[in-house]
């Protein structure tokens, strides 16, 4: 189905994993996609792949932690393709470690990207949606935004923040501004996310988890996003909790 024809989407963290797959799926469904991240070479490859399948994509060099970079990227997309209908707040990272290892830089990085980055892009895109009284915002939370796991304290704190913000945002902008908000909560997805784990114990734990079950693919999450985006305008799929079948 291609009922996203004519829609403009912005996907953050589109250079790999869930973001890249989601951008590709949105393009297949007819949307023109702004693909944003810091690794521009990877975005160029994704753009070429989307265009080979007849889609349209715009590469945006964006660091979600930097509000100026976010504002400039959003302006570039609006100027090039038009006002944004769909925002996928996906950029994030998960360097796991025990609190008593005091990897404080990694704690700050998770808060900066997973929470403040998501707020930066929301602040940059929402005014245009309010003005047009229409739009759809997807926020990438996690199973870690529903329950807490040992070793994931800070990551869980950031993803609980995303879940809470999504709920509050939906209450504030749904009725008043006709904007839909969907909070996505995936279980384990096979992506580069686990590469950022610097703690050897947790890295091994994640490798073991991967050997015990078939992880989701980024495309599985992209498909759920397209499903919610294609729902009739009066339907807000507020939450999607998507797990590998074998994940307890
Ligand atoms: P990846 O590591 O493959 O993707 C992370 C993306 O975030 C990359 O494209 C990276 O791009 C981008 N990113 C990181 N920092 C910044 C920044 N400062 N500015 C802009 N972009 C940034 O992992 P996933 O695809 O798995 O992760 C995507 C989201 O899904 C994350 O929010 C993650 O927490 C969430 N999630 C993942 C799960 C999993 O099991 N994989 C499960 C549940 C949720 P670049 O480095 O080029 O800037």
TrEMBL record:
<dbReference type="InterPro" id="IPR020904">
    <property type="entry name" value="Sc_DH/Rdtase_CS"/>
</dbReference>
<dbReference type="Pfam" id="PF00106">
    <property type="entry name" value="adh_short"/>
</dbReference>
<comment type="similarity">
    <text>Belongs to the short-chain dehydrogenases/reductases (SDR) family.</text>
</comment>
<dbReference type="InterPro" id="IPR057326">
    <property type="entry name" value="KR_dom"/>
</dbReference>
<feature type="domain" description="Ketoreductase">
    <location>
        <begin position="7"/>
        <end position="193"/>
    </location>
</feature>
<keyword id="KW-0560">Oxidoreductase</keyword>
<protein>
    <submittedName>
        <fullName>SDR family oxidoreductase</fullName>
        <ecNumber>1.-.-.-</ecNumber>
    </submittedName>
</protein>
<dbReference type="InterPro" id="IPR036291">
    <property type="entry name" value="NAD(P)-bd_dom_sf"/>
</dbReference>
<dbReference type="GO" id="GO:0016491">
    <property type="term" value="F:oxidoreductase activity"/>
</dbReference>
<dbReference type="InterPro" id="IPR002347">
    <property type="entry name" value="SDR_fam"/>
</dbReference>
């Amino acid at each position: 189905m291609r009922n996203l024809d004519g829609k403009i989407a912005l996907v953050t963290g589109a250079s790999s994993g869930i973001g890249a797959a989601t951008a590709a799926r949105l393009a297949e469904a007819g949307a023109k996609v702004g693909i944003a991240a810091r690794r521009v070479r990877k975005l160029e490859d994704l753009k070429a792949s989307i265009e080979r399948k007849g889609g349209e994509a715009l590469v945006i060099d964006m660091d979600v932690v930097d509000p100026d970079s976010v504002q400039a990227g959003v302006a570039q997309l609006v100027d090039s393709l038009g006002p944004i209908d769909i925002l996928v707040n996906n950029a994030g990272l998960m360097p796991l470690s025990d609190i008593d290892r005091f990897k404080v830089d990694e704690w700050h990085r998770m808060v900066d990207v997973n929470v403040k980055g998501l707020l930066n892009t929301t602040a940059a895109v929402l005014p245009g949606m309010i003005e047009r009284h229409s739009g759809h915002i997807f926020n990438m939370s996690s199973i870690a935004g529903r329950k807490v796991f040992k070793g994931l304290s800070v990551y869980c704190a950031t993803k609980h923040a995303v879940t809470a913000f999504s709920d509050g945002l939906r209450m504030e902008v749904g009725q008043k501004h006709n904007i839909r908000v969907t909070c996505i909560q995936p279980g384990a997805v096979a992506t580069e996310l686990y590469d950022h784990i610097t703690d050897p114990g947790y890295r091994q734990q994640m490798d073991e988890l991967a050997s015990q079950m078939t992880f989701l693919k980024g495309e599985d999450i992209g498909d759920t996003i397209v499903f919610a985006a294609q729902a009739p305008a009066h339907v807000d799929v507020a939450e999607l909790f998507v797990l590998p079948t074998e994940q307890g």
